Amino acid sequence: MDERILRGRVLRFLRRPEGVGDTAAFELFDDGAVHVRDGLIAWVGDFAQAPAGIAVTDHRPHLITAGFIDAHIHFPQGQITASWGAQLLDWLNTYTFPAETAFADPAHAARMATAFYDLLLRNGTTTASAFCSVHPASVEAYFAEGQKRGMRMLGGKVLMDRNAPAALLDTPQTAHDDSAALIARWHGRGRALYAISPRFALTSTPAQMEAAGALIAAHPECHVQTHLSENTDEIALACALYPEARGYLDIYDRYGMLGPKALLGHAIHLTEAERDRIAETGSHAVHCPTSNFFLGSGLFDEAALAARGATSAIATDIGAGMSWSMLRTGGAAYAVAQLQKRSLDPFTAFWWITRGNAEVLGLADRIGTLQPGSEADLVVLNSHATPDLALRMEAARDLKDELFALLILGDDRVVAETYVAGKASKPA
Ligand code: GUN
Ligand code: FE
């Protein structure tokens, strides 16, 4: 038996907070303990009540929370972050597609996988859902490295058979067959989960969307991820390519892509009817705030979806995203909400990057909650890690101030440790 007690200020969420005063939405153990055993959380509570005779790692005075979850990221785009001067469609053609072409090479994909996972763990991210490149070799590298690190990871090969360089195109048949083979090989192997990933309407022919729909119907155990209504030029092109559809979302609807396992990246420029349909089908939008700033795409309206009962995830969208940090991403979501005359509260933001994303992914029984029986993926946060944080913390009055400072000023530097299945895993 492999067990350990982690001592620190333990914070876990029980449900979505309804504002800064909603203290019943979370538990804080000021001198708390997380008992991890064989990769799972055995117990959480006050350190004084923790079982005796077990080795203790003392993280006081740091905060211990569930590991962060990034619900939308691109594995092959680590080298095109901070690429200057383009909005979505130009950015894809100028930077993204050339970078993804290199992932046909297994050696390149493996080297990039090492860097990718190092960056996730450095930033406290213990689960992510990634788009790989069109090449099965990229999926192999992605899941093999995830397995090596023992992480719960979602992902899949992008399906794309038009409007991209020839080296990045599959066909309806190979998209289907390669994905099916990858599902058989990886879904449920260790902690890996496969996400069927038609890139977006612009890069798939109707025949390929048909094949994607068949794959999705045959694999209800898999997630589905794509991009939706990120950019106004993109929407116009999507509607031109699918003239029979009533709108962008309807393209995906027609091919059976919507449902509780569907993750719709960006989903910025939506009609009322589209928001209703997302809620009705139980689909989820994914807020990518730093990416939407970076590409000038627009402001995601979480409140409008929530008002209809739709729950949304939040994500970096690296390489268009401006940071690998889910703290920074939560801070950016605050800025987006401010532009909409709302103030996202720090408890809700922290819930979102942990339990909230786990709920959207349908994985809250396994990750994101710090509940006994769930997987011991945790992050240890030092709220005094940098001079600006230390200065701010001198005047912080409560947990709200501390969490907010971490969201606005924090990044990988505040991550003192990252635990994956109970094992300290932050790269040196
Ligand atoms: N839409 C289709 N592909 C992509 C991508 O790689 N990044 C972003 N931000 N949007 C996309
Ligand atoms: Fe994306």
UniProtKB/TrEMBL annotation:
The gene is guaD. It comes from Pararhodobacter aggregans. GO terms for molecular function: guanine deaminase activity; zinc ion binding. It comes from the Bacteria. Catalyzes the hydrolytic deamination of guanine, producing xanthine and ammonia. It catalyses: guanine + H2O + H(+) = xanthine + NH4(+). Its EC number is 3.5.4.3. InterPro entries: Amidohydro-rel, Guanine_deaminase, Metal-dep_hydrolase_composite, Metal_Hydrolase, Metallo-dep_hydrolases. This is Guanine deaminase.
